[in-house]
Design brief:
single chain, mainly alpha, 6 helices, elongated
């Protein structure tokens, strides 16, 4: 089956246009914030920063495009592939591809109707 590229809806384009880039704090700055909110302890700040960075990625257009392209590729039965050098896109693609089966029925059905069924 040939690959089809995901085309965002008008509503998605509007929402994604509102996303602004988030400036990531330096390690020292994040460690200081962590210590302040954890009674002076710095244990676990690295994992905290990892979680913070991952949570901020979902507010980027690249991540959202990756999620939806992963869903389309999975619905079409294509092999998993990471063809971009952007970590943000690839993370979204991975989550979209592997999480397709857990989507609600309406969303899965819409993807299948629009990108799989020829008509």
């Amino acid at each position: 089956m040939d690959r089809k590229m995901y085309q965002p809806t008008e509503k998605q384009e509007q929402k994604w246009a509102e996303y602004s880039s988030v400036e990531m704090p330096s390690d020292e700055e994040f460690q200081a914030r962590w210590a302040k909110s954890h009674h002076g302890k710095t244990t676990g700040w690295g994992m905290g920063k990892r979680d913070y960075v991952l949570s901020q990625m979902k507010y980027t257009r690249e991540y959202q495009m990756g999620i939806w392209q992963g869903r389309v590729d999975r619905a079409r039965g294509l092999e998993y592939s990471e063809e971009r050098n952007e970590n943000t896109y690839n993370l979204g693609y991975h989550r979209g591809y592997t999480g397709f089966e857990s989507l609600d029925w309406d969303t899965r059905n819409r993807v299948v109707q629009e990108y799989v069924e020829e008509g």
